[in-house]
Write a structure and sequence with these properties.
Elements (H helix, E strand, L loop, with lengths): L1 H12 L4 H13 L3 H12 L6 H14 L3 H16 L6 H9 L11 H17 L3 H22 L5 H15 L3 H14 L4 H13 L3 H10 L4 H8 L5 E8 L4 E5 L2 E8 L7 E6 L2 E4 L1 E5 H11 L1 H25 L1 H13 L14 E8 L3 E10 L5 E4 L3 E5 L4 E8 L2
Parallel strand pairs: 1-11
Antiparallel strand pairs: 1-7, 2-3, 4-5, 4-8, 6-7, 8-9, 8-10
Helix pairs in contact: 1-16, 2-3, 3-4, 4-5, 5-7, 7-8, 7-9, 8-9, 9-10, 10-11, 11-13, 15-16
Length: 405
């Protein structure tokens, strides 16, 4: 009997969880220790096997946070290729997932994560002023939406953000007609973000779609200030893409230890303040990543439960078969299989909580901007490094800013 208990112990203690492995890298990033965080995640992402995809996604995000946008994109592209492959899954892995837990299956990425890969690629390309490749990523994302909607007949909230990104790209490329159309789609897909309405009005005005502009003003009950701002176009402009906070993190569901849900992670910094000379600007939300990720996983919950119910039935059958030959071994096998059940907590854990935007009119040449993080009360939560950049006359330049506080 003791040898059976030893087998049980080995099964239950044999593997560290994903969250434990990646936690040191997240802590290093929070402390600004990029070298240590990147070394940790690079080592994990280089290991081929069941968990490589999730480590690649976190490694790509860490590279983005640390300012290596080109390498970040090379890692994200590697992750996207791995996620899209029809991977061979060995019979032993399938059996292990059925009889023990989901973490024994190769990680293929949650639905939201596969969509967010293209968001991350597109924002990196915007930072690199590569508008053509940024637009390709938005189109790839929209193709995924069509496929998912056809298969599942669901509407994915991320679609509004893909439209918003394409609107930014068209506007930066001075294609105001296309920008007007995409900003309009983005706003009416999710009317929670009033700043997107301002982008819509501005680009429709610039596109000389006068009748449509006037119709939109009435439809959204635009204020006098919004109308004035929409006609006050700034040709030379820095657009800060503020990626705020940490996205939600997986944890076992209360009362259900075999499935995961996403739990919000507290962020002290809620908003970005930018100061240029005597002018002050504040970030405005254009997309809530946390909400979309949580909702998408909830939509997938039913299929997970169905798999685990089938797995429990398979355990009962196997334990019964073993008991026919060895009662003690059958009991130990049943205990081992049931005790090993746990929620699969693997996830892309370094994406942000929200996307926010600040549009700052600047003069051509070298500029300096003071950046400050603010908490929910509007008081200072963190001081960020001063941003220095050069910009050409008439150019729209993008800069990613990330807060982990």
């Amino acid at each position: 009997m003791f040898k059976y208990l030893n087998i049980l112990f080995l099964i239950l203690s044999g593997c560290a969880t994903y969250q434990n492995k990646v936690s040191p890298a997240r802590n290093f990033l929070s402390q600004g220790q990029c070298d240590l965080a990147l070394k940790n995640l690079e080592d994990l992402s280089n290991k081929t096997g069941g968990d490589q995809l999730v480590y690649l996604m976190d490694y790509g995000s860490a590279l983005q946070i640390c300012g290596n946008y080109s390498k970040s994109n090379s890692i994200f592209l590697q992750a996207e290729k791995l996620a899209d492959e029809n991977d061979y899954i060995s019979a032993s892995r399938v059996t292990g997932a059925t009889l023990f837990n989901e973490e024994m299956l190769q990680y293929k990425g949650d639905t939201f994560e596969k969509l967010f890969l293209n968001v991350s690629l597109a924002t990196n390309y915007l930072q690199l002023q590569n508008f053509d490749d940024a637009l390709i990523e938005v189109r790839k994302m929209n193709q995924k939406f069509v496929k998912l909607n056809n298969e599942n007949k669901k509407k994915f909230e991320l679609n509004s953000f893909s439209k918003y990104l394409s609107g930014l790209i068209w506007e930066a490329d001075k294609k105001y007609d296309d920008a007007c159309i995409d900003f309009k789609d983005a706003y009416f897909l999710d009317t929670n973000y009033r700043s997107v309405a301002g982008d819509m009005l501005r680009t429709c005005w610039r596109a000389h779609r006068t009748d449509e502009y006037n119709t939109l003003i009435k439809k959204i009950s635009a204020t006098d200030e919004e109308i004035k701002k929409s006609k006050d176009y700034k040709k030379t402009e820095l657009i800060l893409i503020f990626m705020q906070g940490w996205g939600p993190r997986k944890a076992p569901r209360p009362g259900d230890n075999i499935s995961a849900h996403l739990v919000p992670v507290f962020s002290q910094t809620q908003q970005l303040k930018a100061e240029v000379g005597d002018q002050t600007y504040f970030s405005e939300s254009v997309y809530n990543v946390e909400h979309a990720a949580i909702q998408t996983l909830e939509d997938d919950y039913g299929s997970l439960i169905a798999r685990r119910i089938a797995a429990r039935a398979a355990k009962e059958v196997l334990a019964h078969q073993i008991r026919q030959k060895d009662g003690a071994l059958g009991t130990v096998a049943w205990l081992a299989m049931v005790a090993s059940e746990r929620a699969d907590l693997r996830q892309w854990s370094i994406f942000p909580k929200t996307f926010q935007i600040i549009r700052i009119p600047v003069v051509a040449g070298e500029n300096k901007i003071k950046l400050t993080g603010l908490d929910s009360a509007g008081t200072v939560s963190e001081q960020m490094p001063e941003l220095t950049f050069k910009i050409n006359s008439g150019e729209k330049k993008f800069q990613i800013i990330r807060s982990l506080k």
